[in-house]
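Notes from hallway chat w/ T.B., transcribed later so I don't forget. T.B. wanted the structure written out for a chain they're using in a teaching module, and asked if we could keep both sequence and structure tokens in one place. Agreed to drop them here.
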Amino acid sequence: MSESEMKATANGTKANGNNLFGMPLPDFSKMALPGIAGSEQVLARTREGFEKIKAASEEMTETLCQTYSGNARSATDYGLKVFELSSANAASTLDFMIDLCGSKSATDVVALSAEQTRKAFVAASDQNRELWALAQKLATETGEPIRKHFNKVFHQTG
């Protein structure tokens, strides 16, 4: 090939119609794609379908943002409750230790220990109920908006 034949054109082909590897490039502008290129109805339906997908995607993004915001609040409430309960449990344990230090007999130690065990059991039961309620609230606030959105989208498309 002469130097004039080696010149590349703007689209990457050489003057003789081959690309840099010596292979001819296909001319996609002249290819016919049956059922797509010539039908305005198909193009309109495709465009409409993509618009529906785009709208559903935007709605889902908004739903997830709202869910995340609610989830963050509920998770914070749950964490604060855990700190509150931990503080109450620590204070109860310290009170018990102070009472033990002031006991004068083995009978007092046994009585104080039995009372502390009863208090701890009741407190743990109450605390577990509170934490369970907060966990249920967190799960509901997280899942419900997403479930509603999916139901809405599926009913629209069905």
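Follow-up for T.B.: Confidence is low (pLDDT under 50) at residues 1-18. Might be a good example for the class.
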